[in-house]
Amino acid sequence: xxxxxxKSSLEEFVWKPxxxxxxxxFITGGAGSICRVQAELLVLLGAKAALIGxxxxxxxxxxxxxxxxxxxxxxxxxxxxxDVRNVQQLKAAIxxxxxxxxxxxxxxxxAAGNFIADxxxxxxKAFKAVVDIDLLGSYNTVKAALPELVKSKGSxxxxxxxxxxxxTPFQIHVSAAxxxxxxxxxxxxxxxxxxxxxxxxxxxxxxxxxxxLSRLSFGTKPEEYTKRVPLQRVGSTKDIANATVYLFSQAAxxxxxxxxxxxxxxxxxxTVMGSLPYPDLLLSHQKINSKL
Length: 292
Ligand code: HXC
Hints:
Blueprint: E1 24-28, H1 33-44, E2 48-52, H2 56-67, E3 76-79, H3 87-101, E4 106-109, H4 124-152, E5 155-159, H5 172-192, E6 198-204, H6 211-216, H7 237-248, E7 259-262, H8 280-283
Parallel strand pairs: 1-2, 1-4, 2-3, 4-5, 5-6, 6-7
Helix pairs in contact: 1-7, 3-4, 4-5
The structure holds hexanoyl-coenzyme A.
Hexanoyl-coenzyme A is lined by residues 112-115, 117, 121-123, 125-126, 129-130, 133, 161, 163, 174, 211-212, 215-216.
């Protein structure tokens, strides 16, 4: 179970209550480990939120749970059966959110897909699936939300990664997708800036209790990574939530087109993910898989 927040969690944070009163957040991947806690902190700070996901049951359950933190019951909406690869489904989710809450101020494009695979085991379809979810899905999310963001002079956060700052083995697909997400953020910041819309990325490092880490750990326990992190601990979902609040708040009014790396300094030491089984796992293939 990922770390989640409770009603008294706000005492642990530096933010003032009601910071996001009357604001509405639209969060893809909002039922997942990292984005759920981003949603929780926004809701604790007074925002309303729509959590968007593919799995309807998981998304609706998460929304009910996050709503327990809200100032006013019914402030969190779960919208399932939405695949970010489908812009029409996203548009319908935007419409539902606006129908319920009247506006959208903040968008978090957090839905992502990932798995460990080296090139010989990564089909063209598998590469496309991840690029479509992570990169096209991020574009689609902003595309569908744009009319609302224009009205509210809103703000966007893409959830990126640090994998592509170096060559990370077994993560070709995600690295390519997240490099694209960073480029998307920079270009959109330039295009949407004149409309008063800010666009930034958060690049999480190794976040304990996250789905990403459990999928990519190669059997390594989070504690085993700590020596590879300059700040000597793995990150928490609260670290990402704090960066989110900063980027959406007025404190970041002049900040757009940035990539906020929240990794304890880890990427400066080079790639961590996948470095343990490298290169033995690659060299262990008896023959190159010829499946496309
Ligand atoms: C090799 C794989 C594979 C694996 C799927 N595929 N899993 N190939 N190794 N482990 C291949 C399939 O065989 C198929 O190709 C192609 O990918 C598409 O698979 P589908 O199952 O049809 O696609 P889909 O249902 O769209 O699933 C998308 C998915 C899946 C990304 C492939 O893993 C998924 O839905 N994941 C859930 C969400 C998720 O991953 N969350 C983690 C986010 S963490 P072929 O050619 O065989 O038909 C995260 C962190 C990133 O993103 C940064 C970390 C630091």
